[in-house]
Amino acid sequence: MAYFLSEHVVPVAPVYYLTGLTVAGIFLYIVSGLLLILLIKRQEKFHTHRELYAIVLLTVAPAASLWAFFVTAMWWG
Q1: pTM for this prediction
Q2: Rounded Cα gap, residues 31 and 71, in angstroms
Q3: What whole-number distance in Å separates Cα of residue 51 and Cα of residue 64?
Q4: Which in 10, 18, 42, 73 has the greatest CB count within 10 A?
Q5: Beta carbons within 8 Å of 61's beta carbon, 6+ residues apart
Q6: How confident is the model over 12-65, as pLDDT tens digits?
Q7: Three-class SS of residue 40?
């Protein structure tokens, strides 16, 4: 994706796009976690699936964020 953006949007080094995408991804996981906490506190909608949402978020988010951070760190050298 970083190479695609570098070739078709603004021609800058792909590592900058990768860094921006990694930060955006981690930010979205944090926002999702905060929204899930609000959902659990309100206990109105989706009350039957909130535990499933929490399990999925707590298993997928750390793994994906760590992998994205690792790849970005390797690109920066």
Answers
A1: 0.81
A2: 22
A3: 20
A4: 18
A5: 29, 32, 33
A6: 999 999 999 999 999 999 998 898 888 778 776 656 777 788 888 889 999 999
A7: helix
